[in-house]
């Protein structure tokens, strides 16, 4: 099975972003699975079914997280579109989050 994990770091405080809801969607926007970041800001395995080669989205509900933490922010949602090109490989998609910016990269 292709593994897919993520984590969210609050780039302002350097702390994990605990309790961020994340949805895994296919290219058409159909939700395949979902989860919430743990105390370390991680979801170690978001997919329950094997991923096949193709385009996917990880959608982070940042608006709710910012609101719950009383932070005024610009991005209510972060949608990271990525491509699975090797179904046998593990994919890790982290997000560094701040109220007015975010970044991501292909992790390992």
The radius of gyration is 13 Å
Estimate what percentage of residues fall within beta strands. over 45%
Query: Helices and strands, in N-to-C order?
Result: EEEEEEHEEE
Helix content: under 10%
Describe this structure in words.
Substrate binds at residues 7, 42, 105. InterPro entries: Hydroxyisourate_hydrolase, Thyroxine_BS, Transthyretin/HIU_hydrolase, Transthyretin/HIU_hydrolase_d, Transthyretin/HIU_hydrolase_sf. Residues 1-107 form the Transthyretin/hydroxyisourate hydrolase domain. One of its GO terms (molecular function) is hydroxyisourate hydrolase activity. Its EC number is 3.5.2.17. It is a single chain. With 108 residues, this protein is mostly beta strands. The chain has a single domain (4-98), classed as Transthyretin/hydroxyisourate hydrolase domain (Immunoglobulin-like). 6% of the residues lie in helices and 45% in strands. It has 1 helix and 9 strands. Strands 1, 2, 5, 8 and 9 form a 5-stranded mixed β-sheet that branches. It has a 4-stranded antiparallel β-sheet with strand order 4-3-6-7. A hairpin with a 4-residue loop joins strand 3 and strand 4 (31-36). The chain is globular. 22% of the residues are buried.
Tell me the layout of helices and strands.
Blueprint (H helix, E strand, L loop, with lengths): L3 E7 L4 E2 L4 E6 L4 E6 L5 E2 L10 E7 L1 H7 L9 E7 L6 E8 L2 E4 L4
Parallel strand pairs: 1-8
Antiparallel strand pairs: 1-2, 1-5, 3-4, 3-6, 6-7, 8-9
Tags for this entry?
mainly beta; Immunoglobulin-like; five-stranded mixed sheet; four-stranded antiparallel sheet; 6% helix; Transthyretin/HIU_hydrolase_d; EC 3.5.2.17; hydroxyisourate hydrolase activity; Transthyretin/HIU_hydrolase_sf
